[in-house]
Amino acid sequence: GDELVEIGGTFVSTLGRAEILALLIKSPSGLGFFRPTHADKAIWEAAHRALVEQRTPPATGPERVGPLSVWWRKPATIVEAAEEIQEAFTGGVSPGSFFVAINGISVLEAGRDQVLQLLKCQRTMQLRSGGIPGRIRVAAYVAQCQPPQDPEWVGPIQVSWSVPFPTLVRRQDGTAEAWSPSVCEGDEIVAWGDVPLRNCSRSRILRIISECEGTCQVRGLMYKELEREASALLSSCPVLKSGDAPGIEWVGPLRMAWTQPPTIVEAHPR
Predict the structure, then answer these.
(1) CA distance 50 to 47
(2) Which of 29, 37, 52, 97 is the most buried (most CB within 10 A)?
(3) Of 209, 177, 180, which is closest to residue 193 (Cα–Cα)?
(4) Which long-range contacts (CB under 8 A, 24 or more apart) does 266-270 make?
(5) Which residues make Cβ contacts (< 8 Å) with residue 130, sequence separation at least 6?
(6) pLDDT mean over 138-163
(7) How far apart are CA 68 and CA 94, in angstroms?
(8) Are 268 and 254 in contact (CB under 8 A)?
């Protein structure tokens, strides 16, 4: 009762008898079979129903396709996957995973209707994890439809909507390896990818995160200290030169010589 769906890496569900026999002669050992599960049938039915009813996707939030909740960006991205489909994929299906191919056909640039057409008769489905950035992107997309909180969890990071920049409050355990070592809790998030976040509203920041392929650019606590110290020094008397030597003074964690351009003489170990 199993379906023969692949011979030597070629998807054969749409091929005729002669083509399939030719492939069996050429690659008799590379056979792939398919046995539909309850989750597969639920996806087929949901995709078929969405197309037949000419249903429009939700104005906000993802669309439910059987056991999958899908965000129709490119590539189509999974927001949530029911427990019944997790066993079909090694490592499960996490939020932010996206469709790579269905029935051997690439869908990285496919729109909603094309993906649904393939899902209603899918026999093979290739997904790729979006990693930590994918989880954050999906969480930001979903959070746009939810009441604001401060601080607020956006996937594996907790953000405070401070001004002029949001602040990274916490990171979930086990995600530290996904970040640059320079990223620390308490840092200001000054940009996401190449998009600056200065004085942006919560809704604007969430939209930027959900649409941007990059990751956070931060400004650490040291920069705040530099700002405070520099502001205080501006209102004090300048350090005078000693003979031909330039004036030297501490600006927060940096000892500066006022040459042209300024030179760092010494830096705090941190």
Answers:
(1) 5
(2) 97
(3) 209
(4) 270/222
(5) 77, 94, 95, 96, 97, 98, 137, 138
(6) 92
(7) 11
(8) yes
Q: How far apart are CA 178 and CA 155, in angstroms?
A: 13
pTM for the full predicted model: 0.72
199 near 179, Cβ under 8 Å? no
Look at the alpha carbons of 182, 186, 190, 193 in this order and tell me if their dihedral is positive or negative: positive
One-letter amino acid of 230 = A
Asked if pLDDT for residue 255 goes beyond 80, the answer is yes
Report CA-CA distances (Å) from 23 to 13, 18, 19. 13, 9, 6
Amino acid at 14: T
| DSSP codes of every residue in 40-66 | HHHHHHHHHHHHHTTPPPPSSS-EEET
**What confidence category does residue 141 fall into, taking pLDDT thresholds of 50, 70 and 90?**
very high
Side chain identity, residue 148: P
User: DSSP 3-state assignment of 211?
Assistant: helix
